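Batch job 17 of 40 flagged for manual review because the log was empty.
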Amino acid sequence: MANPQKRKGDAAEREAAQLLSDLLGLVVRRKLGAGRTTTAGGDTGDLDGVPAHVIQVASWANTAAAARLKPDEAALQAEHAAVPFAATLVRFRGGTWRVVLTPQQWAAYVSWILRQSPQGTALPDLPPSSGGGA
């Protein structure tokens, strides 16, 4: 039988995959063999289904440590996967999730959005941030 930490991590990955599936309207799933290195030379994240992304999931008792350490791991995994974006989903007690990015990861999103805009400004028809906690 798997150890309790592995079961907790597997459950968090399934929960995160369902959350992203619901929010994005995509089919997001746990990667088979998540956390294992690939023939390409390294781990490539925990979830599949979000194009051009590596998604790392953390459900740690020490959420501050997860928020500090996991985004750097996700950045390395994005290099291994040769994709431009990386994000870390951190699960807090009670089932609240937060997406954690390094400043460089956040800047990659903003730069991409600004390149899509004809005037290089924020797009006016984007929905406002909900601020709700999932």
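Reviewer: the log was empty due to a logging misconfiguration, but the result itself is present. The first strand starts at residue 29 and ends at 30. Unflagging and moving on to job 18.
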